[in-house]
Protein backbone atom coordinates (compact mmCIF):
# COMPACT_ATOMS: atom_id res chain seq x y z
CA UNK A 1 0.00 0.00 0.00
CA UNK A 2 1.46 3.38 -0.88
CA UNK A 3 0.10 6.72 0.28
CA UNK A 4 -0.69 9.48 -2.18
CA UNK A 5 1.86 12.30 -2.23
CA UNK A 6 1.43 14.66 0.68
CA UNK A 7 -1.03 12.45 2.58
CA UNK A 8 0.05 11.69 6.15
CA UNK A 9 1.79 8.36 6.30
CA UNK A 10 2.17 8.45 10.06
CA UNK A 11 -0.12 10.42 12.30
CA UNK A 12 0.47 10.83 16.01
CA UNK A 13 -2.40 12.13 18.10
CA UNK A 14 -2.32 13.30 21.72
CA UNK A 15 0.53 10.92 22.51
CA UNK A 16 1.54 10.69 26.14
CA UNK A 17 4.18 8.66 27.91
CA UNK A 18 4.87 8.59 31.61
CA UNK A 19 7.61 6.72 33.43
CA UNK A 20 6.33 6.41 37.01
CA UNK A 21 5.29 9.93 37.88
CA UNK A 22 7.47 11.58 35.21
CA UNK A 23 5.62 12.75 32.14
CA UNK A 24 8.10 12.38 29.28
CA UNK A 25 5.69 12.99 26.40
CA UNK A 26 3.00 15.46 27.34
CA UNK A 27 0.62 15.30 24.39
CA UNK A 28 2.32 15.09 20.99
CA UNK A 29 0.41 15.71 17.75
CA UNK A 30 2.48 15.17 14.64
CA UNK A 31 1.79 14.02 11.10
CA UNK A 32 4.50 12.84 8.78
CA UNK A 33 3.74 13.09 5.07
CA UNK A 34 4.79 10.42 2.61
CA UNK A 35 8.26 11.20 1.16
CA UNK A 36 8.94 13.76 3.88
CA UNK A 37 12.31 14.14 5.57
CA UNK A 38 11.44 15.41 9.04
CA UNK A 39 14.00 16.45 11.60
CA UNK A 40 13.43 16.45 15.36
CA UNK A 41 15.67 18.63 17.47
CA UNK A 42 15.59 19.66 21.10
CA UNK A 43 17.57 19.55 24.33
CA UNK A 44 18.66 16.35 26.04
CA UNK A 45 15.77 14.76 27.92
CA UNK A 46 13.08 16.50 25.88
CA UNK A 47 11.61 13.15 24.80
CA UNK A 48 12.93 12.79 21.23
CA UNK A 49 14.06 9.17 21.57
CA UNK A 50 10.96 8.22 23.52
CA UNK A 51 8.80 9.67 20.76
CA UNK A 52 10.56 7.62 18.07
CA UNK A 53 10.51 4.50 20.23
CA UNK A 54 6.76 4.87 20.81
CA UNK A 55 6.28 4.92 17.02
CA UNK A 56 7.17 1.26 16.72
CA UNK A 57 6.27 0.32 20.26
CA UNK A 58 9.73 -0.20 21.64
CA UNK A 59 8.09 1.90 24.36
CA UNK A 60 4.42 1.48 25.16
CA UNK A 61 2.70 4.87 25.06
CA UNK A 62 0.53 5.73 28.05
CA UNK A 63 -2.20 7.40 25.98
CA UNK A 64 -2.94 8.63 22.48
CA UNK A 65 -3.08 7.18 19.00
CA UNK A 66 -0.55 6.46 16.25
CA UNK A 67 -2.08 5.92 12.83
CA UNK A 68 -0.02 4.21 10.17
CA UNK A 69 -1.19 2.68 6.90
CA UNK A 70 -4.80 2.96 7.96
CA UNK A 71 -4.55 1.41 11.44
CA UNK A 72 -3.90 2.62 14.96
CA UNK A 73 -0.74 0.69 15.77
CA UNK A 74 -1.46 1.02 19.50
CA UNK A 75 -4.47 -1.27 19.09
CA UNK A 76 -4.01 -4.56 20.99
CA UNK A 77 -4.45 -6.67 17.85
CA UNK A 78 -1.47 -5.04 16.07
CA UNK A 79 1.00 -7.54 14.63
CA UNK A 80 4.20 -6.07 16.09
CA UNK A 81 6.57 -7.87 13.73
CA UNK A 82 4.65 -6.82 10.64
CA UNK A 83 4.43 -3.24 11.88
CA UNK A 84 8.16 -3.06 12.73
CA UNK A 85 9.06 -4.20 9.25
CA UNK A 86 7.15 -1.25 7.84
CA UNK A 87 8.43 1.25 10.44
CA UNK A 88 12.19 0.76 10.36
CA UNK A 89 14.49 2.11 13.02
CA UNK A 90 18.17 2.99 13.04
CA UNK A 91 19.94 3.76 16.31
CA UNK A 92 23.08 5.58 17.37
CA UNK A 93 24.70 2.22 18.17
CA UNK A 94 24.71 -0.03 15.13
CA UNK A 95 23.93 -3.29 16.96
CA UNK A 96 25.50 -5.52 14.32
CA UNK A 97 26.50 -9.11 14.98
CA UNK A 98 30.31 -9.06 15.11
CA UNK A 99 30.74 -12.63 13.85
CA UNK A 100 28.59 -12.12 10.74
CA UNK A 101 29.67 -10.32 7.59
CA UNK A 102 27.72 -7.30 6.33
CA UNK A 103 25.58 -9.36 3.94
CA UNK A 104 24.59 -11.84 6.66
CA UNK A 105 23.86 -9.05 9.15
CA UNK A 106 21.38 -7.66 6.63
CA UNK A 107 20.01 -11.06 5.54
CA UNK A 108 19.46 -12.37 9.07
CA UNK A 109 16.04 -10.82 9.64
CA UNK A 110 14.95 -11.75 6.13
CA UNK A 111 15.66 -15.40 6.86
CA UNK A 112 14.43 -15.54 10.45
CA UNK A 113 11.58 -13.02 10.48
CA UNK A 114 10.38 -13.07 6.88
CA UNK A 115 11.32 -16.74 6.41
CA UNK A 116 12.84 -16.01 3.04
CA UNK A 117 14.98 -18.71 1.45
CA UNK A 118 18.64 -17.97 2.14
CA UNK A 119 19.55 -17.31 -1.49
CA UNK A 120 16.76 -14.80 -1.94
CA UNK A 121 17.61 -13.13 1.38
CA UNK A 122 21.26 -12.80 0.36
CA UNK A 123 20.29 -11.29 -2.99
CA UNK A 124 18.07 -8.76 -1.23
CA UNK A 125 20.78 -8.03 1.31
CA UNK A 126 23.30 -7.38 -1.45
CA UNK A 127 20.85 -5.02 -3.11
CA UNK A 128 20.27 -3.15 0.17
CA UNK A 129 24.04 -2.85 0.68
CA UNK A 130 24.34 -1.43 -2.82
CA UNK A 131 21.81 1.29 -1.88
CA UNK A 132 24.09 2.44 0.95
CA UNK A 133 27.22 2.28 -1.21
CA UNK A 134 28.64 -0.89 0.33
CA UNK A 135 28.17 -3.48 -2.42
CA UNK A 136 31.92 -4.09 -2.41
CA UNK A 137 32.09 -4.65 1.38
CA UNK A 138 29.42 -7.34 1.70
CA UNK A 139 31.92 -9.95 2.87
CA UNK A 140 33.46 -7.75 5.57
CA UNK A 141 32.67 -8.25 9.24
CA UNK A 142 31.76 -5.21 11.37
CA UNK A 143 35.26 -5.15 12.89
CA UNK A 144 36.71 -4.65 9.42
CA UNK A 145 34.46 -1.68 8.68
CA UNK A 146 34.63 1.95 9.79
CA UNK A 147 31.92 3.29 12.09
CA UNK A 148 30.31 5.07 9.16
CA UNK A 149 30.29 1.87 7.12
CA UNK A 150 28.85 -0.07 10.07
CA UNK A 151 26.06 2.45 10.40
CA UNK A 152 25.36 2.12 6.68
CA UNK A 153 25.08 -1.66 7.14
CA UNK A 154 22.54 -0.98 9.90
CA UNK A 155 20.63 1.28 7.50
CA UNK A 156 20.76 -1.43 4.83
CA UNK A 157 19.36 -3.89 7.37
CA UNK A 158 16.37 -1.61 7.92
CA UNK A 159 15.91 -1.01 4.17
CA UNK A 160 15.99 -4.72 3.30
CA UNK A 161 12.69 -5.16 5.15
CA UNK A 162 11.13 -2.65 2.72
CA UNK A 163 9.88 -0.16 5.28
CA UNK A 164 7.45 2.64 4.43
CA UNK A 165 9.23 4.94 6.88
CA UNK A 166 12.57 4.84 8.66
CA UNK A 167 13.11 6.49 12.04
CA UNK A 168 16.68 7.50 12.83
CA UNK A 169 17.75 8.23 16.41
CA UNK A 170 21.01 10.20 16.31
CA UNK A 171 22.47 8.05 13.52
CA UNK A 172 25.75 9.95 13.40
CA UNK A 173 26.31 10.75 17.08
CA UNK A 174 28.66 7.82 17.70
CA UNK A 175 30.81 8.57 14.65
CA UNK A 176 34.10 10.36 14.32
CA UNK A 177 33.46 13.70 12.60
CA UNK A 178 35.10 12.65 9.34
CA UNK A 179 32.70 9.67 9.03
CA UNK A 180 29.48 11.63 9.55
CA UNK A 181 29.28 12.82 5.95
CA UNK A 182 29.08 9.31 4.48
CA UNK A 183 25.99 8.52 6.55
CA UNK A 184 24.34 11.86 5.81
CA UNK A 185 25.00 11.23 2.10
CA UNK A 186 22.99 8.01 2.41
CA UNK A 187 20.10 9.91 4.01
CA UNK A 188 20.22 12.43 1.19
CA UNK A 189 20.21 9.63 -1.38
CA UNK A 190 17.27 7.90 0.34
CA UNK A 191 15.35 11.14 0.30
CA UNK A 192 15.88 11.47 -3.44
CA UNK A 193 14.33 8.01 -3.88
CA UNK A 194 11.25 9.13 -1.92
CA UNK A 195 11.83 7.32 1.36
CA UNK A 196 9.90 8.84 4.27
CA UNK A 197 12.18 9.56 7.22
CA UNK A 198 12.08 11.07 10.69
CA UNK A 199 15.52 11.90 12.00
CA UNK A 200 16.55 12.92 15.50
CA UNK A 201 19.92 14.58 15.06
CA UNK A 202 22.09 17.51 16.03
CA UNK A 203 23.40 17.89 12.46
CA UNK A 204 21.94 21.35 12.04
CA UNK A 205 23.77 22.06 8.79
CA UNK A 206 22.27 18.95 7.23
CA UNK A 207 18.81 19.80 8.58
CA UNK A 208 19.07 23.29 7.09
CA UNK A 209 19.90 21.95 3.66
CA UNK A 210 17.98 18.68 3.44
CA UNK A 211 14.99 18.63 5.84
CA UNK A 212 11.48 19.38 4.64
CA UNK A 213 10.43 20.20 8.19
CA UNK A 214 12.08 20.69 11.54
CA UNK A 215 10.28 19.97 14.80
CA UNK A 216 11.58 21.50 18.04
CA UNK A 217 10.75 19.59 21.22
CA UNK A 218 11.16 20.62 24.83
CA UNK A 219 9.85 18.99 28.01
CA UNK A 220 7.83 16.40 26.14
CA UNK A 221 6.07 18.88 23.90
CA UNK A 222 6.42 20.17 20.38
CA UNK A 223 7.17 23.85 20.87
CA UNK A 224 7.46 24.80 17.21
CA UNK A 225 7.69 23.21 13.79
CA UNK A 226 8.20 24.48 10.30
CA UNK A 227 10.51 24.55 7.30
CA UNK A 228 14.21 24.95 8.07
CA UNK A 229 14.13 28.54 6.85
CA UNK A 230 11.74 29.33 9.71
CA UNK A 231 13.29 27.22 12.48
CA UNK A 232 16.83 28.36 11.69
CA UNK A 233 15.87 31.86 10.62
CA UNK A 234 15.93 35.16 12.48
CA UNK A 235 12.20 35.03 13.25
CA UNK A 236 12.35 31.72 15.14
CA UNK A 237 11.38 31.93 18.83
CA UNK A 238 14.29 33.03 21.03
CA UNK A 239 14.37 29.66 22.80
CA UNK A 240 15.04 27.86 19.52
CA UNK A 241 17.70 30.31 18.38
CA UNK A 242 19.40 29.87 21.75
CA UNK A 243 19.26 26.06 21.45
CA UNK A 244 20.57 26.01 17.87
CA UNK A 245 23.41 28.36 18.80
CA UNK A 246 24.34 26.16 21.77
CA UNK A 247 24.56 23.06 19.55
CA UNK A 248 26.52 24.80 16.81
CA UNK A 249 29.07 26.22 19.24
CA UNK A 250 29.51 22.99 21.15
N1 LIG B 1 12.99 3.72 30.63
C1 LIG B 1 12.93 4.90 31.26
N2 LIG B 1 12.59 4.99 32.55
C2 LIG B 1 12.51 6.17 33.18
N3 LIG B 1 12.72 7.36 32.59
C3 LIG B 1 13.07 7.34 31.30
C4 LIG B 1 13.19 6.13 30.55
N4 LIG B 1 13.54 6.43 29.28
C5 LIG B 1 13.63 7.78 29.24
N5 LIG B 1 13.35 8.32 30.45
C6 LIG B 1 13.34 9.76 30.76
O1 LIG B 1 12.54 10.39 29.80
C7 LIG B 1 13.05 11.67 29.49
C8 LIG B 1 13.18 11.79 27.98
O2 LIG B 1 14.16 10.87 27.54
P1 LIG B 1 14.56 10.72 26.02
O3 LIG B 1 15.63 9.71 25.97
O4 LIG B 1 13.35 10.49 25.21
O5 LIG B 1 15.12 12.16 25.70
P2 LIG B 1 15.95 12.66 24.43
O6 LIG B 1 15.31 13.92 23.99
O7 LIG B 1 16.09 11.57 23.46
O8 LIG B 1 17.37 13.03 25.08
P3 LIG B 1 18.86 12.90 24.44
O9 LIG B 1 19.03 14.10 23.54
O10 LIG B 1 19.77 12.98 25.62
O11 LIG B 1 18.96 11.60 23.72
C9 LIG B 1 14.37 11.81 30.23
O12 LIG B 1 14.12 12.58 31.37
C10 LIG B 1 14.69 10.39 30.59
O13 LIG B 1 15.42 10.35 31.78
MG1 LIG C 1 17.69 10.52 22.68
Describe the protein in words.
Helix content is 36%, strand content 25%. It is built from nine helices and ten strands. The strands form two sheets. Strands 6-7-8-3-9-10 form a six-stranded mixed β-sheet, with helices on both faces. Strands 2-1-4-5 form a four-stranded antiparallel β-sheet, with helices on one face. The model has no long low-confidence stretch (mean pLDDT 94). The protein binds adenosine-5'-triphosphate and magnesium ion. Magnesium ion binds next to α1.
The assigned structural class equals alpha/beta
**CATH fold-level label:** Rossmann fold
Radius of gyration: 18 Å
Helix content: 25-40%
Shape: globular
Helical stretch tally:
9
Strand order in the sheet with the most strands:
6-7-8-3-9-10
Order of helices and strands: EEEHEEHEHHHEHEHEEHH
Bound molecules: adenosine-5'-triphosphate, magnesium ion
Instruction: Please tell me the overall pLDDT.
Output: 94
Taking the sheet with the most strands, its summary is: 6 strands, mixed
Q: Gap between N and C termini, in Å?
A: 43 Å
Strand content: 25-35%
Q: Superfamily at the CATH H level?
A: P-loop containing nucleotide triphosphate hydrolases
Unreliable sequence segments: none
CATH architecture: 3-Layer(aba) Sandwich
Number of domains: 1
Outline of the structure:
This protein is of the alpha/beta class. It has helices at residues 48-54, 80-86, 102-112, 118-131, 147-160, 177-192, 204-210, 228-231, 238-248; strands at residues 8-19, 22-33, 37-41, 63-68, 71-72, 87-90, 165-169, 196-200, 213-218, 221-226. It has one domain (8-248): 3-Layer(aba) Sandwich (Rossmann fold), CATH 3.40.50.300.
Amino acid sequence: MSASPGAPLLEIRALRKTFGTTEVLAGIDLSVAARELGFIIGPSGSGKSTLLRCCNRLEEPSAGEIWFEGANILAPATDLNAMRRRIGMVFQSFNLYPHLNARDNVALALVHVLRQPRQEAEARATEALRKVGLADRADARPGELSGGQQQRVAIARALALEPAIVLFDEPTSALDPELVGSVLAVLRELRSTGMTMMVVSHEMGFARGAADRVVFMESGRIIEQGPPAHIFGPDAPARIREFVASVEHR
